[in-house]
Design brief:
Length: about 290
């Protein structure tokens, strides 16, 4: 028997055997991750619903608190800012409530999307599931919140009738665009934030700023009709969230459809999805190590 000390001086140490495997940075695996996550709809659908039930566990009204809190905030802000801006309350209150309804969905996708993989650290490490499952779960949960809050919009439409027409059907593709963009934002920011943990606080600060830059408690059209600030008011269109809010709020309030907002959203959707797919292709295999 020989030991390590008996090796010949010129001998070279044995190298570990490396098994060749298919590269992880492939488009096939990126699209496969999305497809596998979509096939597990019963799982992320159940988990998303359980997230809501857990949040309001042992409360009398349960998830109805989502709509109640939304109604209280919308009413308070509508009355306050309506008085400050001298706006007609039957028109301004539904405007603010609908804007908050859409903003809550967008804000939820951005904030929770940046921590979607960090928050699911345990599942990612111990459950062999595609990363997209956690993204689908997040978007589904935010969609359920949105559907709960639609009750507030429906009540306001009964109290303050608006001239709703066939354009209301555009709310369906508009919301679908919001869902798609919420998904790619979660994928992109989730991967980056998992690697760089300073990203979530930065995003949280930026979303607070975006709220005041987005026409939710103030009306963009009113500023455009004011010759003194009309030119400067157009700077608001630099904010991409404004276009997402408008494509859904306009059909929900029976307002004339401004197709410029749809074109901007379409471009952002294509560019964002391409960027998210690129990050998913290059870094999906590293997320489990980063968390």
């Amino acid at each position: 028997m020989t030991t390590g000390d008996d090796r010949a001086e010129g001998a070279t140490p044995a190298r570990p055997v490396v098994v060749d495997v298919a590269g992880s940075r492939t488009w096939r695996r990126a699209f496969g991750d999305l497809a596998q996550g979509w096939q597990q709809r019963p799982l992320w659908g159940y988990l998303g619903w359980q997230d809501i039930k857990q949040r309001y566990r042992r409360s009398v009204l349960g998830p109805l608190w989502v709509s109640i809190s939304m109604a209280v905030i919308a009413t308070a802000m509508g009355i306050l800012y309506g008085a400050l801006f001298q706006m007609d309350l039957p028109t301004f209150l539904p405007y603010v409530a609908t804007g908050l309804l859409i903003w809550n969905f967008v804000n939820g996708c951005i904030l929770e999307g940046s921590e979607v993989f960090i928050a699911n650290e345990g599942l990612i490490k111990f459950l062999p599931a595609p990363l997209s499952l956690h993204v689908y779960r997040l978007v589904w949960r935010q969609s359920l919140f949105f559907l709960h809050n639609v009750v507030v919009w429906a009540v306001l439409m009964v109290i303050f009738p608006h001239p709703l027409g066939w354009s209301l059907l555009l709310a369906l593709p508009a919301f679908a665009l919001l869902v798609i963009n919420g998904a790619w934002i979660a994928v992109l920011t989730g991967i980056v934030a998992t690697r760089f943990r300073d990203i979530p606080p930065i995003i949280a600060s930026l979303t607070q700023l975006l709220f005041f830059m987005t026409p939710i408690v103030w009306q963009y059209d009113t500023l455009l009709r004011n010759p003194a600030v009309a030119e400067r008011a157009r700077i608001a269109e630099i904010n991409p969230v404004m276009h997402f809010v408008e494509i859904l709020r306009q059909p929900m309030l029976g307002q004339p459809i401004v197709w410029r907002h749809w074109y901007v959203v379409a471009v952002i959707t294509v560019v964002g999805c391409a960027a998210a797919l690129l990050f998913l292709r290059n870094y999906r295999s590293r997320v489990a190590y980063w968390v």
